[in-house]
Amino acid sequence: MIVALNNKSNFTKEEFIKYLDELSTIETKHKIILCPTSVNIALFDIDNVSLGAQNVSNNLAGAHTGEVNADQLESFKVKYCLVGHSERREEQHITSKDTNKKIKQLLDNHITPILCVGETKEQRVHKNYRAVIREELLTAIKDLEEEEIKRIIIAYEPIYSIGTGIVPTNDEIIEVLNIIKKILPDNKILYGGSANEDNIDTLKEIKEIDGFLLGGLSLEVEKLKLFLEKI
Ligand code: PGA
């Protein structure tokens, strides 16, 4: 399984160095991808985990203050990058068109995009979540070659589940995974949203899942180890 760790905006330099020390003790058959805060990428120095990023610029190098571009990420040996995380869609007003530009930048630089899609509680209640997921996927892959599309990892993250402790039922998750699979039958799909060492026994019954995207749990290495033992 693939387990991607989203540190979000956490860990000072010293805290991150200590955290890396702890992460380096993980022994597992699963593929672990660590997505640290961008300044901490430069400190990454362990080899039992792959390196990811949490964001990439829509653009090439140039006059884009505050942005980190795909070429720079590649030069720091970043192999994966989250795209379209709901916190960036909400707080930074990233659109699906932006995710399409970011994915192109990443693929051009040999970095695997991890495209996050998911609906709000309101969209679920109003039953337009299927259309939301389809739009997020179809806009993100627009004008890409078939071979490029296959390289993208999808992370299904219901927004109401992120950091809340609320996890949808397996049937609810499976329904959305099947919507994704109808559009992208060959892509790996992760589930994200309050996944932890307590609910993993239920989540792992979903055979359509290829792995998990972990936020809160990524910060607690002992609990993460328990989680990895259970999958
Ligand atoms: P969570 O976050 O595991 O804390 O819910 C997941 C994510 O936002 O990627």
Keywords:
231 residues; eight-stranded parallel beta barrel; TIM Barrel
Account of the protein in words:
Strands 1-2-3-4-5-6-7-8 form an 8-stranded parallel β-barrel. Strand 7 (189-192), helix 10 and strand 8 (211-214) form a beta-alpha-beta unit. The termini are close together. Helix 5 runs parallel beside helix 7 and helix 7 packs parallel to helix 9. 39% of the residues lie in helices and 16% in strands. The chain is α/β, with parallel strands linked by helices and 231 residues long. The protein has a single domain (2-230), classed as TIM Barrel (Alpha-Beta Barrel), CATH 3.20.20.70. The protein is built from 11 helices and 8 strands. 2-phosphoglycolic acid (PGA) binds next to strand 8.
List the helices and strands and how they pair.
Layout: E1 2-6, H1 13-23, E2 31-35, H2 38-41, E3 50-53, H3 70-75, E4 80-83, H4 86-91, H5 96-108, E5 112-117, H6 121-125, H7 129-140, H8 146-150, E6 153-156, H9 170-183, E7 189-192, H10 200-203, E8 211-214, H11 221-230
Parallel strand pairs: 1-2, 1-8, 2-3, 3-4, 4-5, 5-6, 6-7, 7-8
Helix pairs in contact: 5-7, 7-9
